[in-house]
Amino acid sequence: MSDVKAIVVLTEPNGLARPQEYLRVGVPLARGEAFDVEALELADAAGNILPAQFRALASWPDRSIKWVLLDGVCALEANQRCELTVRAGGGGRSAVAGAAQVDQGERGIRVDTGAACFHLRLDSATPFDGVRVGDNELVAQSGCDLTLLDEQGAPYAVRVDRKFVEESGPVRVAVVAEGAFVTGPRTLKFETRAVFHAGSAAVRFEVKLLNPHVAHHRGGLWDLGDPGSYVFRDLSLKIRPAGQATRMSWYVTPDKPHTSRSPAEDWVLLQDSSGGEHWDSDNHVDRSGASTVSFRGFQARTGEKIVEQGNRATPCLGIGIEHGWLAASVEDFWQNFPKALRWQQGALQVSLFPAETKSAFELQGGEQKRHTVLLDFGLEGTDSVLPRLQQPAIVHVAASSVEESRAVQHFVAALDASSADCGRYVDNIIDGKDSFFAKREIIDEYGWRNFGDLYADHEAVKHQGPRPLVSHYNNQYDFIYGAFQNFQRTGDARWWRLMRDAARHTIDIDVYHTKEDRAAFNGGLFWHTDHYKPALTCSHRTYSAANAAGGDYGGGPSNEHNYTSGLLHYYYLTGDDEARQTVVGLAEWVIAMDDGKSSLLALVDEEPTGLASKTVSPDFHKAGRGAGNSINALLDAYALSRDRRYVRKAEELIQRCIHPADDIDALGLLEPEYRWSYLVFLQVLGKYLDQKREWGELDYDFYFARDGLLHYARWVARNEVPYKDVLHKVEIPTETWPAHDVRKSHLLYVAAKYAPESERAELRTRARFFFERCIADVTSFATANLTRPLVILSVYGSVHAYYQRHANDGVPYVAHNYSFGDPTVFVPQRGRLRSVLSRKRQVVIGELRRIVRDKLRGVLGR
Question: How many Cα neighbours within 13 Å face the side chain of 260?
């Protein structure tokens, strides 16, 4: 059908019938296909229009929609796979029956989903303050509390700054509350989001707790126990049923039978550790280095009596009253341990940070954590939908639709035969003994602070200790983007889980969420933990006092570890606004760190610091990953905001770091130990050129970058060799070096696209050569399946297949009349300090001499 814009695929993997499955997915659209979300509709295979709402997330330069967020509803049979279409329609969404209704007044917000009616007070942080199903009150007015207890068990005061309807449509309604838990002069910020769906009495309630204050990090060390941390004892949501509780039911996992009992006694299910083989890993320590876990897995107790125990719980607790019931759980319950479900003090309690653990909780300066509570309500004789929410169906956009949209750079729906070996290699990430799921178990990469990160096992190759070395990856080389691409290509839920987990962890834990530190750190992304050293009490923050051996040790967030493209596309795919804010925030960090006016040296010199463009050393401001990552972050932020500041800054950094007439031989780029990452810069330069073409901006800046890229690419084609052939030049010859050869292949393919026709064949031949050597050389190592090389190939391994499929994806080469002058050398603010002070000293001396001369003339004149 000509009006079909994209195909959306749903798969039911758990043998559950789903009469109402709510789907949310970002859909890429080709340029010019749709200009108004009101003209889109969702249809099933028979052409029936389904309930749906759409929201534009990104646009093409002609203002047509590039990414649209779809919320829809459909029915799925057990184990069914179905295809839906997003198509041009005639306002079909108006046919939604039982659409959610929202009424907001001075006293509160009322959400009626058709299945339940929820009342929300404007001064409350909770998902609701009363719940009615039919004529029956299941939660009384003011029957819900969100409480935070300090280290001594005293409650924090709650301040709600604002509560508002964030999103309202026929399918989905979201209400957000922002505020703070207050104790003395300091506060812990919170944000809650309650999500309701038409026709459903279930609620998704997201709770974010944020410490916005600065970490003191004396000496550039970032251990737990820092004075900027908050320590607290418990964070719980408490719901009191409207009426006497008559029964209690619970299960440990959805596939185990319900256990029913009288609710007369207090009851708690505590997941104290992951329940894995290495549940007591050195990964789980407090500020003193002591273990935070007490026993393996979970225990369900009444008083001191253990009524059930096991390893990994995906539980639900339900409370029945005279006419109905209420039920609760937490998404990723055991993975984000510790967690607890309780029936205590006449309330169903969901504890996100439970007081039953032996250690209090420490939220470091600039650290946040989000959890998602699952709630459901119903009348007697009906069943809860929580088992289905705990085991969601898989939704993705068909790979062919993604490729046809051209909304994802270098995306190809299927790998060709020449990329088959690469595809099999990358699949080790999701399958087999070296999968990233298996690697989680080695250091028990679970718990609220760790879940979602990858095990940096390449750091432990030579480790000799009796227990595994704990090392955290922190999204190095942008694994999130690699997982995104592979999920889009395959629809395999394992890629989805790794992508989602890594994105949420990176946003919450690895980003420094404060505005109170120096400009070079505020809002930045922390490095992976230190090379070949255990993380110990530095958590995910690189430098620990226990690893400092004197001398120059320590640091903080840096431009060389700034990865945004995965988060950008995660936002496109999910609509998670935290991801959007993080991408924009990381671009603002780039601008702030380079702003000389924000430096202490501004008293002497207000010009750029150079912190956004340095690589390895403070005085190297040529092509390198520091500048490359900064430019990439700016381009991604522009894609979200259309704020030209980001483009202007990107072009400033490009023209600071390369020139079409650079003496490349003088830069020492063939010394891989310190200069390999010039390849990162050139890859990003290709992205900049592609985006400038998309925007229709073939101007001075475009041709400066194009000629610069071609100048360097020609040099690469003539001078570079596979890294395995020059491993004698590097300090530690590992499998990661040949993995970086894929970057040479990537930039040469891009350069061929922009080169004169006469040069393209040679550049593509060299690109293919480096790709083939990359795969052969990486897989020749016994350590090929370590995390780092797998990540690099997950991100760039499909570029070769893209250019095999789009071999004629060339750009007409156009000569220009621009003069770019001669290359100049950028000197950073600190480097300029001596010369600036010298100049100012000369000015002062000259001024003093003038004053003395004038005085003498006055005296002699008398």
Answer: 5
Which DSSP letter does residue 433 get? T
φ, ψ dihedrals at 531, nearest 5°: -60, 125
pLDDT at position 810: 80
Which of 254, 199, 201, 203 minimizes the C-alpha distance to 20? 199
pLDDT in tens, 595-618: 999 887 877 888 999 999 999 999
Distance from C-alpha of 639 to C-alpha of 61, rounded to nearest angstrom: 10
Mean pLDDT of the chain: 94
Each as own residue / partner, the long-range contacts of residues 251-260 (CB below 8 Å, 24 or more positions apart, any chain) are 251/315, 251/316, 252/298, 252/300, 252/308, 252/310, 252/313, 252/314, 252/315, 253/312, 253/313, 253/314, 253/315, 254/314, 254/316, 254/386, 254/387, 254/390, 254/391, 258/318, 259/308
Which pLDDT band holds residue 263 (cuts at 50, 70, 90)?
confident
> Looking only at Cα atoms, what is the longest distance across the chain?
112
**476-503 average pLDDT score:** 98
Residues 422 and 414: beta-carbon distance below 8 Å: no
Contact of 594 with 613, CB cutoff 8 Å: yes
Rounded Cα distance, 590 and 635, in Å: 11
Residue 845 CB burial class (10 angstroms; 0-12, 13-18, ≥19): exposed
What's the helix, strand, coil split of the chain in %, to 5?
35, 25, 40
Of 358, 255, 314, nearest to 16 by C-alpha is 255
What's the CA gap between 160 and 416, in Å, rounded? Answer: 55
Any idea what DSSP says for residue 227? Answer: T
Contact 668, 728 (CB under 8 A): no
Q: What does each C-alpha distance from 29 to 10, 169, 821 come to in angstroms?
A: 19, 21, 41
Measuring CA to CA, which residue among 367, 336, 357, 345 is closest to residue 513? Answer: 367
Query: Which residue's structure tokens are 């028979």?
Result: 46
Rounded distance between C-alpha atoms, residue 493 and residue 500, angstroms? 10
- Global pTM? 0.95
237 to 267, 332, 340: CA distances (angstroms): 16, 17, 11
- Residues whose CB is less than 8 angstroms from the CB of residue 57 and which lie 6 or more positions away in sequence, other chains included: 26, 66, 67, 68, 69, 571, 572, 575
Interaxial angle between packed helices 625-641 and 644-657, expressed in degrees from 0 to 180 and rounded to the nearest 10: 160
| pLDDT digits 0-9 by tens, 299-312 | 999 988 999 999 99
pLDDT at residue 52 in the model: 97
Type of residue found at 81: R
Measured CA distances, 454 to 578, 668, 689, 731 (Å): 20, 33, 32, 25
Containing 656, the helix (H) or strand (E) segment is helix 644-657
pLDDT band at 196 (very low <50, low <70, confident <90, very high): very high
What would the pLDDT profile of 59-102 be if each residue is shown by its tens digit? Answer: 999 999 999 999 999 999 999 999 999 999 855 443 455 789 99
Of the candidates 196, 191, 194, 192, the residue with the CA atom closest to the CA atom of residue 169? 196
pLDDT of 848 over the 80 cut: no
Q: How does DSSP assign 453-507, residue by residue?
A: PPB-GGGGTT--SSSPPP-B-TTTT-HHHHHHHHHHHH--HHHHHHHHHHHHHII
Tokens standing for residue 395: 């939704």
Instruction: Using the predicted structure, report yes or no on whether residue 506 has a pLDDT greater than 50.
Output: yes
pLDDT of res. 843: 59
Query: What is residue 360's three-state secondary structure?
Result: coil
Give the distance from CA 658 to its chain's centroid. 30
pLDDT band at 861 (very low <50, low <70, confident <90, very high): low
Lowest mean pLDDT among 239-243, 547-551, 811-815: 547-551
Helix or strand run (H / E) with residue 343: strand 339-344
Task: Give the closest residue to 583 by CA, choosing from 677, 475, 493, 488.
Answer: 475
- The pLDDT, as a whole number, for residue 624 is 98
Residues forming beta bridges with residue 254, ordered by sequence position? none
Give the C-alpha separation, 97 to 95, whole Å: 6
